Amino acid sequence: MASDASVPRNRLAVAGARATTKAMLSEQPRADVIRNTLFAGLLLLSILIALAGLFALVIQAFAKGHSALSLDLFTNPPSTINPDQAGFRPAIIGSLELIAGVILFVVPIGIGAALYLEEYADRSRWWNRAIEINIQNLAAVPSIIYGILGLAFIVRGPLDLGFILAAGSLTLALLVLPMVIIAAREAIRAVPDSIRQGSLALGATKWQTIRTQVLPASVPGIATGVILAVSRALGETAPLLLVGATVFVTFDPTPFSPDGYSALPVQIFNYAVRPQDEFQTLAAAGILVMLVVLLAMNSFAIWLRNRYEQRW
Amino acid sequence: MTREEVRITVRPEEFQHPDSSGEKVFELHDIDVHYDGVAAVKGITMDIRHKDITALIGPSGCGKSTLLRCLNRMNDLIPAAEVGGELLYHGEDLYGPTVDPVQVRKLIGMVFQKPNPFPKSIYDNVAFGPRILGAKDGLDEKVEKALRSAALWDEVKDRLDSNAFGMSGGQQQRLCIARCIAVQPDVILMDEPCSALDPISTGKIEDLMVQLKDEFSIVIVTHNMQQAARVSDRTAFLMVELDATEQNRWGRLVEYDETEKVFTNPADKRTEDYVSGKVG
């Protein structure tokens, strides 16, 4: 009900609102347009710099190594005498066995640690917070340190496994374990509390809730984390050199054989340090093989995430 | 009888559902709930009758949901929560030292404010409860029976294997009710079950509640006074109480009676103001 007195006030309010709207819809100032474009350009440049390294590597490796790309690369053992026929077979098998061991080790332990931290640990206790911070720090420790750790405690020391492939696997597993724990924690945290409460309200125990609701719902996230961690393990060279990935192996390695083992990046390194052109070409071809494997694994991880990720 | 003398473990298999109506399912004596030492509700004393629909109404922050979560020990999941006073369930101390909260929740189910189906098929959602109870045979019958009781069977019988996330909000909430029924509880607690739903879905759930009353005792928290008036037999009105400094606030039971009396002839002025829409 508008009284007579309120009519001019209404008009004033309407006029004010119109003026505000008009001001907001008017053309953007020129300086703003320039600033926006400039800023977007800078951001684009940042991406290009980040990608330039990868492209340079791929192009250079391809230009140099494409002539050596053949099936022999996968089926032939390395050779110092005969670069024409030299390949990566023992190194590829060694790498596959290494990452199989890594997966066996990091999946149960990584998930277990993540479940403890997310579902059981009482955040108000200082030691649980200390554990959390330390796991995040562990992920940033240089890999060579893990190599020294592996040498001191796994190859020698308490475990005393010797220079065998399994020792390399364990060392790499320790290296990527923090990554897996962090990824698994994020996946577990993404499961909403309403799901846990719904399950508990039906009379499920905490462990039943975790086993039948939380874990299945977080599997895609955990799997993605594991694949990314494994692809990191696949590319690691430094720690392996310390725990016995000898540079020259012409036979197929087995996990517990004391005769030594090799891995793809170690073999590439071995070829790359030789002065002859043929070995340089082989190293470049090896880089291509490894890049393809790594990109395939990472793409699979991304596909897995997009395909199975639960949207709540 | 002091609390120490009570040595009873509530177990669903031993428990006989009493069917004499008018019997008390819950007896609350001077219930206080504190979170981190701060009171959320104080001094609640009320009896909740068997096979009735009991509504808890009141303004936001009056502790309706907190009180509801005491009844199936969901408050145990919040480490900072502390429940004081005496809460009897069919005469047995629900917070007795030998009572396992997991067993309590098998008898006293809960439906939440926002539908929370599991990210599984419709069938697996309903079968979840019987499965964790160890049922292996006759799952199909149990699932069908629960879905029929929740008035959902005809809508979903052809797509039991499809993901529950593909259902509408109202269907999801009825699925959550079916999931709860499948465990064959004694009591169903509902925490504002219709607040995320449209009026048609709300109507369906209200009809469902009235049907379920024959089998279960229902306690419902609702913001919607018409809903309480439509479905409940008895209504409890809670209100926010402030201390002298107005710094601390907690919920207090103002009036608890037959729904008709609470809405037409309330004993307390505050109840009258609230149900007539003057405050709140």
Q: What attributes does this structure have?
A:
heterodimer; A: 312 residues; mainly alpha; MetI-like fold; 2 domains; flat; B: 280 residues; alpha/beta; Rossmann fold; six-stranded mixed beta sheet; 10 helices; 10 strands; globular; disordered N terminus
Topology (elements, then pairings):
The complex is a heterodimer of chains A (312) and B (280).
Chain A: H1 6-25, H2 30-65, H3 72-75, H4 89-120, H5 126-138, H6 143-155, H7 165-189, H8 193-201, H9 206-235, H10 238-242, H11 264-272, H12 277-308
Helix pairs in contact in A: 2-12, 4-7, 4-9, 4-11, 6-7, 7-9, 8-9, 9-12, 11-12
Chain B: E1 24-35, E2 38-49, E3 53-57, H1 64-71, E4 81-89, E5 92-93, H2 101-107, E6 108-111, H3 122-132, H4 139-149, H5 153-156, H6 169-181, E7 187-191, H7 199-212, E8 217-221, H8 225-231, E9 234-242, E10 249-258, H9 259-264, H10 269-275
Parallel strand pairs in B: 3-8, 3-9, 6-7, 7-8
Antiparallel strand pairs in B: 1-2, 1-4, 4-5, 9-10
Describe what this molecule looks like in 3D.
The complex is a heterodimer of chains A (312) and B (280). In chain A, 73% of the residues lie in helices and 0% in strands. Chain A is built from twelve helices and no strands. In chain A, helix 4 packs across helix 11. Chain B has a domain of 180 residues: 3-Layer(aba) Sandwich (Rossmann fold). Chain B has a six-stranded mixed beta sheet, with helices on both faces. Chain B has a four-stranded antiparallel beta sheet with strand order 2-1-4-5, with helices on one face. In chain B, helix 3 crosses helix 4, helix 3 packs parallel to helix 6 and helix 4 packs across helix 6. Chain B is globular. The relative contact order of chain B is 0.18. At the A-B interface, helix 8 and helix 9 of A face helix 2, helix 3 and helix 6 of B.
